[in-house]
Amino acid sequence: MNASAEKKVQISSIAETWMEVRAQGLYCKPADCYIDPVEPVGRAIITHGHADHARSGHGEVFATPETIAIMRTRYYTNDDTHETALAYDARTDLGGGVTLWFASAGHILGSAQAVLEYNGQRVVAAGDFKRHPDPTCAPFEVVPCDVFITEATFALPVFQHPPLESEVDKLMRSMRALPGRTHIVGVYALGKCQRVMKTLRLAGYAHPFYLHGALKRLTELYESYGQDFGAWELVSEIPRADKGRFRGKLVLCPPAQINDRWSRRFADPLPTVASGWMQIRARARQKRAEMALVVSDHADWGDLIRTCKETGAPHVWITHGRVEALEYALRREGINAKGLNLIGRDEGVE
Amino acid sequence: MEAFSRLLDDLYFTNSNLAKETILSNYLRATPDPDRGWTLAAIAGTLRFDLFKRNVIKSLMQERMDPFLFDLSRDYVGEMSETVALAWPQSDSPVRLNRLPDLADVIDEFQSRDKAGIRDYLIMLLDNMTPAQRWALLKLGTRGLRIGMSARTVKRTLANMKSVPLDDIEKLWHGLEPPYENLFAWIDGRAPKPDMSGVLTYSPVMLAHPIEDKDFDRISPDTHQAEWKFDGIRVQISAGQSGVKVFSRKGDDISHSFPDLVDAADFNAVIDGELLVKPGGEIGRFNDLQQRLNKKKPSKKLMEQLPAHIMAYDILSLNGEDLRKLPLSERRIHLASLTADQNPDRFSMSEKLNFKTTDDLTALREEAAQTGGLIEGLMIKDKSSLYVPGRPKHGWYKWKRDPFLLDAVLMYAQRGTGKRSSYYSDYTFGLWNEEDKLLPIGKAYFGFTDEELKEIDKWIRNHKLARFGPVQEVEKELVFEVAFDSAHESARHKSGYALRFPRIHRIRWDKPAAEADRLTAIAALIGA
To answer: Can you list the alpha helix ranges (DSSP code H) found in A241-296?
Structure first.
């Protein structure tokens, strides 16, 4: 650590008397409740439905209605799970003097920041979040607090995400320039897929999307919440012989499939990956993408720092990602930042 | 500048060479002079000057960005130019441009400015650019462009644009200078072919056919001569009043790597020969030569340890006179008298080997096989052959010794590119050491049929172990018979050996992995 970062900062916060890091995850003592635990626990607050935050086997789950629906769709919960669905801003008493409410995080459908209030203090666990606009979920809401708990997935100055429109424009330009090729875009099934489809529609792409089967259920779930992606068809329901059908069109699938056996069925496929990591050329080449779309559902460097400052929180705890860089930069701003070194967060999912 | 950056991005992310050629020729057709010529130079690596030094970029970043954060970023990205391109912090009150200047203007500006001016101009450009454009500028400016396109592919693109053989471009290439306006004028059909008289250029070389059984009937000591086929690299030395140039077989100018040869060439002629190194006065292995290749500026020490040497095979012109229309036997006489006057440490002439019968040739070839790779085999040439570029029929034959064969075990697989991107088609294989551990000795991605590729791909998918990024480890069960031209000791490889030109010879589905070869087998094969 650079010496200049070691300004007189008070690392500890009074909140540490009631919030602590355990092997299973972040733990709220008076409420006996975990936030996004990585192992099955009795009571869990779940910020959003991605697999590295939402897991199966918890006894009791607090989440937004959308997140609960996502967890059901992915079989993370069953009929024995005690579910408490809390819409944004609705408050509930967790017991032990702790009140919980959710504020939107702008990450994916239903994503939330968990706001915990106890003894006049407020801790906000942001989960994963972004500040860029997203037509498929509610925008991030700044909640003033005493301790802000943030991720640091893209916490390096090299990560400055471009507007999604410019990336979608790049894709549409390529489709016009290479009408003989099938553009196969690798997207995560939850969030990225739907955001890319919606943005393409807003940009004027009118043809039906062709989807890999793994994207179907979550897309339907988004539709049940009023999202409209226009027409889409499953690749598996189109006869194998009909290769020409996909020529010049757009196929969406999970990232691993863009150049695996599955993609052999398309005419002259052009593998494309949409992810925040695509900012780094070598990463894009490693994925063998012929086109890299920088599409991130996480805050970039500037937005991470801006957000931490806007919450006014004197203390920022950092869960995962490029912890060292964010910690260093926040301390230079006079914020008491520290890494929590949480384990079990997935680098790839974004 | 916008179009240049877009082109680089397109080329960078495109895998197939054919697609790259299309992208490049579309750009060259649509872009006016002199921009397209500068682009051509940047891609082909023929720019002769840096627009700015890496140190300027470094010092700019030191002023603008916290060094700790910069170091973390560079470590993550792995490379300075891209880190700067992505993280560039805008100036407090940047000068805004309505549009970026053309590539040629950018080059002119940088060249006409002094140090402080270069700095200011660089800042202004970076402030007005997207990350991709900044990357293009930084790579262009420091001549660090690597987009997976060889000079040869560039030349082939030009040849196809003009519908002429590649040789026509090769002949011109080294006589032309960026931004290549006369070249494009000719390609566009607005001007005649550029005049290359008096310029040292590369002449396309004459190549040999692999010998076939039926060819032996034609060969007799009266009509043919035999020579060793040395294991160096084929080069052409073009020397005259305007200097000395060393060209590789592909026509790349590699003079800068061999100043010892350039200084020693005391003639006005074009010589065809094998480039070798002679450590301690003896012909060195290919491995030794490799240490001299791709060195921009070899150190004095390296040149003393591994002095370059030309084993001359042929002569194309002498004192301005084209000898290519003379028969080989006459060219050899000119070559002999020329090499006799040269420093024998630097230039010698490939000797003719004595033979009467095919059996003698067989014995000579056997002798070559016993040199542990120093000699690749035999060249058998028609004494009356004219020097004709390409591979004329029945002119020259090559008779390589048989490749070495080893049974190795497949250890790791990686997917290929382009059409093969969904198949595991790059294989790393190893041999057993004394402790019964497999150590990798090489990598191969050809030598098998498409059918076999599918079978191997399937086998790999069913025998996966751990994964390291793009590299898939597999169960150590499948044996490949691997063919290779030579092996040499290598400190960089765990096994201590590296293979030259390894390829899959046969797939030994039947052979148990435990019965594959051991590392000691290589030592025995190459006599090391």
So the answer is: 281-286
% residues pLDDT > 70 (chain B): 99
Question: Do B461 and B408 belong together in one domain?
Answer: yes
What is the predicted pLDDT for the residue at B526? 67
Q: How many CB atoms lie within 10 A of CB A236?
A: 13
* Same domain flag for B37 and B70: yes
CA distance, residue A326 to nearest chain B CA (Å)? 9
Is A328 in contact with B14 (Cβ distance < 8 A)? no
What is the percent of chain B with per-residue pLDDT over 90, rounded to a whole number?
69
A279 touches chain B (CB under 8 A): yes
| One domain, residues B293 and B411 | no
Across A121-131, average pLDDT: 97
Contact B69 A322 (CB under 8 A): no
A329 touches chain B (CB under 8 A): yes
Mark yes or no for CB contact A292/B415 under 8 Å.
no
**B237 lies in the same domain as B366:** yes
Q: Which domain holds residue A64?
A: 3-158+298-339
Same-domain status, B312 and B233: yes
Whether residue B223 is found in the same domain as residue B339: yes
* Residues of chain A with C-beta less than 8 angstroms from the C-beta of B77: 158, 280, 282
User: B381 and B427: one domain?
Assistant: no
Pairwise CA distance, residues B76 & A281, whole Å: 12
List, as ranges, residues 104-163 from B with C-beta within 8 Å of A.
130-131, 135
Same domain, residue pair A21 and A134? yes
Give Cα B363 to chain centroid, integer Å: 33
CB atoms within 10 A of CB B39: 24
Question: Which one of A122-131, B5-14, B171-180 scores highest in mean pLDDT?
Answer: A122-131
* Confidence label for B31 from pLDDT (cuts 50, 70 and 90): very high
Q: How far is CA B256 from the centre of its chain?
A: 15
For B183, left (φ over 0), alpha (ψ -120 to 50), or beta?
Answer: alpha
B59's CB contacts (< 8 A; 6+ apart) are none
Structural domains counted in chain B? 3
Q: What is the CATH number of the domain that holds A115?
A: 3.60.15.10
Q: Look at residue B102 in the predicted model and tell me its pLDDT.
A: 95
Residue B459 sits in a domain whose CATH number is 2.40.50.140
CATH for A243: 3.40.50.10890
Q: B107, B122 in Cβ contact below 8 A?
A: no
Q: Is the peptide bond before B34 cis (omega within 30 degrees of 0)?
A: yes
Residue B171 lies in a domain: no
Q: What is the mean pLDDT of chain A?
A: 91
Task: Tell me the C-alpha distance between A172 and B395, whole Å.
Answer: 54
* Alpha-helical runs (H) found in A52-163: 65-73
Residue A74 in 3-state DSSP?
coil
User: Do A272 and A146 fall into the same domain?
Assistant: no
Looking at the fold, whether B347 and B486 belong to one and the same domain comes out as no
Place of tokens 């004095």: B300
CB-based burial label for A75 (10 Å; 0-12, 13-18, 19+): exposed
> What Rg value do the Cα atoms of chain A yield, rounded?
21
Would B164 be classed as within a structural domain? no
Six-digit token pair at B82? 């891209």
Inform me whether the C-beta atom of residue A255 falls under 8 Å from chain B C-beta atoms: no
Number of structural domains in chain A:
2
The answer on pLDDT for A343 being more than 80 is no
Residue A108 lies in a domain: yes
Whether A272 contacts chain B with CB within 8 A: no
For B251-271, how does the pLDDT look when each residue is reduced to its tens digit (9 = 90+)?
A: 788 999 999 999 999 999 999
Q: Which residue has the higher pLDDT, B429 or A285?
A: B429
- What angle, rounded to 10 degrees, do the helices at A323-332 and B67-77 form? 160
Could you say which DSSP state residue B449 is in? -
